[in-house]
Amino acid sequence: MDGSIDSEKRALRAELRERRQQRSAAALEDASAGIRQQLDTLVAELGVRSMSCFLSTPTEPGTREFIAGALARGIRILLPITRADGLLDWAVAEEEGATAEGMFGMSEPVGELLSPVAVNDVDLLVIPAAAVDRSGMRLGWGRGYFDKTIGSMEKCPPVYAVVFDTELVDEVPRDLHDQPVTGVVTPTRTVTLTTR
């Protein structure tokens, strides 16, 4: 990775992380409700029966309400589990599914592990991001898990990153391995950016 790009990414991630930590509990609750509504609409429009999603951290736009509602409607959801080799295993989400702390201190599902290729059959990927630019380039949190997943898929379905409204920006620093997303889901809107 180019040193100047790496420095730009680190600085932007630190700024975004700080902004996220400043959000009030009420703002985060509102964001979670908005994300649920936006994802419910997206899933219905795309006719999704199987998808991947992620368990949001306390400072991310919340996905947990959406996951609970989607499971109740019979949608199959795969949740990521980090591995030391930089790939993701997957577990099928359950309504009362147990979680444990993963490799980076984030909550991950506990259950039967499915291999990295399990995600190849989903209709939609919903992934975390620090920011996304208007060309569809995503700035992740620096470990490359989702870039590797997207880049390795033979037939990649639509990929939407979940961000706060202010995190859809004009441009993010990018490197060769960075993968674009189809669009973003924010608490107030869903924006399609590319055709992938």
Strand tally is 12
Q: How much strand?
A: 15-25%
Number of helices: 4
Average pLDDT confidence is 90
Within CATH, the superfamily carries the name: NagB/RpiA/CoA transferase-like
Radius of gyration: 16 Å
CATH architecture: 3-Layer(aba) Sandwich
Descriptive report:
The protein has 4 helices and 12 strands. The protein has helices at residues 3-21, 25-46, 64-72, 145-152; strands spanning 50-52, 76-82, 88-92, 99-101, 107-109, 124-128, 131-133, 138-139, 159-162, 168-169, 183-185, 190-192. The longest helix is centred in the N-terminal third of the chain and has 22 residues, at 25-46.
What's the structural blueprint in terms of helices and strands?
Blueprint: H1 3-21, H2 25-46, E1 50-52, H3 64-72, E2 76-82, E3 88-92, E4 99-101, E5 107-109, E6 124-128, E7 131-133, E8 138-139, H4 145-152, E9 159-162, E10 168-169, E11 183-185, E12 190-192
Parallel strand pairs: 1-2, 1-6, 6-9, 7-10, 9-11
Antiparallel strand pairs: 2-3, 4-5, 7-8, 11-12
